[in-house]
Amino acid sequence: MFKGRAFQSMLKGWGRRCCQCGDRSLFAGYLKISEKCAHCGEAYGHIRADDAPPYFTIMIVGHLVVPMILWSEQLWSPALWIQMATWIPITMLLMLWFLPRIKGATLGLMWSMKMRGDEQH
Ligand SMILES: [Zn+2]
After folding, report:
1. Where would I find the beta strands (DSSP E) of 13-102?
2. How many angstroms separate the CA atoms of 111 and 103, rounded?
C-alpha cells in the first residue's frame, strides 16, 4: 500500500509541499489548503480530508502521551497539579505540531489515489 507514488505524495504532504512539484505551497495558512499550487497550478481546493487528520492526530498523540503519563506516574508519582501542568501543554504542543503535517500527508494520500472527499458526484 505505501510504496511509490502514494508514499512520495504523503511525504511531500507531511512537509507541506505540493504533491506534484514539491513547492512549499500546499497550505495557504496553518491548516488551510491552497486552492492550487502557486508553482505548478495543481488544484487542491476540491480535496476534503474532513476529520481524518484530527482522528489520526489524536490517535498518534494519545499513543505518545498516555504511556509517558503512566511511566512518570510509575517512576515519581508526581502531584496531580504537576501532572496537569506538564502533560496538558505537552499534549497541546504535540497536537499543534502533528495536525498540519498529518493533514498534509492525508491530503497527499488522497491526491495520489485521486480521491476528492467531496459529495459532488
Ligand atoms: Zn506544485
Report:
1. none
2. 12
Q: How many domains does the chain have?
A: 1
Over residues 67-96, mean pLDDT: 96
Q: Which residues surround ligand 1, an ion (CB under 5 A)?
A: 18, 20-21, 23, 37, 39-40, 42
Residue 10 lies in a domain: yes
Distance (Å, whole) CA 35 – CA 25: 10
- Measure 44 CA to ligand 1 centroid, in angstroms: 10
Q: Is residue 120 included in any domain, yes or no?
A: no
Q: How far is the CA of 45 from the centre of ligand 1 (A)?
A: 13
Model pTM? 0.88
Provide the residue range defining the domain that includes 15: 4-112
